[in-house]
Specification:
With about 350 residues, the protein is an alpha/beta fold. It has helices spanning about 5-10, 40-65, 80-90, 105-150, 160-170, 185-195, 210-215, 230-240, 260-265, 270-285, 290-295; strands at about 70, 100, 155, 180-185, 200, 220-225, 245-250, 270, 305-310, 325-330, 335-340, 350-360.
Length: about 350
């Protein structure tokens, strides 16, 4: 009767893929680009005006209670209008000098109570001016500068789990952070993306104006990684209408939407549910396939799967005898020749190879 393997012996034979001694990629310091405020401008302005009015009313109330400590050079008693006038000119730092505090208590109130209120109100005014005027000018300038630099870039619509993994893989493969633009409606997602040195646009990716700002017509590819498949179809239609020549890669969850996405103009469709299910099924009967596939698809893996043009020293070699690589297929004049269906052939200059090769330098 065969003996059952102990957990220790099973653990010792578990398949592991060693990592290469590479330095970890360190993202540069980044800035976040927002194209619109998160709160309605009218509502924000109304809140700030109410705050200023409340502070002025508080200052007026305190000055009214201590009106005996104030003196007007032109009259003996101060009325309500005089106190309102003094409150406004004091808060506004005008100070004509016609009404002055004469008692010690009135001067202390002006120094330690009215002055802080005055500073807060001025900060509110300056912050409002910055947010509604200066920030808009700076944002428009940054947007124009960004759009001038965007060419052959990659637009990622949706910075969720799949989108973030895709971006990190692009960075690991050598794509510069300046060549990636993220569109997402969540501020926290944009902050995480821009922490990698990537420009982010705040808003719904389906909005055509945001896609225009991201220069999708000049983009090399658009990755659509939104949470809803119906939104992915609508977004694919929108992108295709703006950029007929741009490559569109879409992630979906349900296989049933593949036909609609093809009709909408998607070039590549990735079903995360199907791929995950296949790997789960393979993992039931095997120990090595799933880690090998994960390693194969990752840029930092021990081996990598690449699609590239045939190099000069490879031209004239048989497809099953190229030194240093394993050719699993090649594309010749739009036709895919695979190692499992077609006989080995001589590689020609215009062939595109699909190869498995080592990531080791040299």
């Amino acid at each position: 009767m065969p003996q059952k393997k102990s957990p220790q012996s099973r653990q010792s034979h578990r398949f592991r893929l060693p990592r290469l001694p590479r330095g970890s990629w360190k993202p540069p310091r980044a800035q976040t680009l927002f194209t619109r405020p998160y709160v309605s401008p009218r509502r924000m302005l109304l809140h700030r005006l109410l705050l200023v009015a409340a502070l002025c009313l508080l200052a007026f109330t305190v000055l009214y209670l201590d009106r005996r400590g104030l003196r007007d050079a032109s009259r003996d008693a101060l009325g309500i209008i005089d106190l309102m006038y003094f409150t406004m000119v004091t808060v506004a730092t005008v100070g004509y000098g016609d009404i002055v505090p004469v008692t010690a208590r009135a001067r202390l109130i002006d120094a330690f109570f009215i002055v802080p209120i005055r500073i807060v109100i001025w900060f509110v005014f300056l912050g409002t001016a910055y947010q509604f005027v200066i920030q808009r000018v700076i944002e428009e300038f940054r947007m124009k500068r960004l759009q001038k630099q965007l060419h052959e870039h990659i637009v990622v619509c949706g910075y969720g789990m799949s989108g973030s993994v895709a971006i990190r893989e692009l960075l690991e493969s050598g794509v510069k952070p300046e060549a990636i633009v993220v569109i997402d409606p969540q501020q926290t997602a944009l902050e995480a993306a821009t922490g990698l040195g990537i420009a982010g646009l705040l808003g719904d990716p389906v909005r055509e104006d945001l896609l225009q700002q991201a220069q999708v017509r000049e983009a090399r590819a658009v990755i659509i990684s939104v949470s809803d498949d119906a939104t992915a179809i609508l977004l694919t239609l929108t992108v295709r209408s703006i950029a007929p020549q741009t490559k569109i890669v879409v992630r979906i969850q349900e296989q049933t939407f593949q036909r609609q996405l093809r009709q909408a103009g998607a070039d590549v469709i990735v079903s995360s549910t199907k791929i995950g299910g296949l790997l789960l099924a393979d993992a039931v009967e095997s120990e090595y396939i799933v880690p090998f596939i994960n390693d194969l698809l990752s840029t930092r893996g021990r081996v990598t799967l690449l699609e590239r043009p045939a190099e000069l020293h490879e031209v004239g070699c048989w497809s099953n005898a190229v030194p240093g690589i394993v050719v699993i297929g090649l594309v010749r004049e739009g036709t895919v020749l695979s190692f499992y269906e077609d006989a080995p052939c001589l590689i020609q200059p215009d062939d595109v190879l699909m190869v498995i090769q080592s990531s080791r330098a040299g």
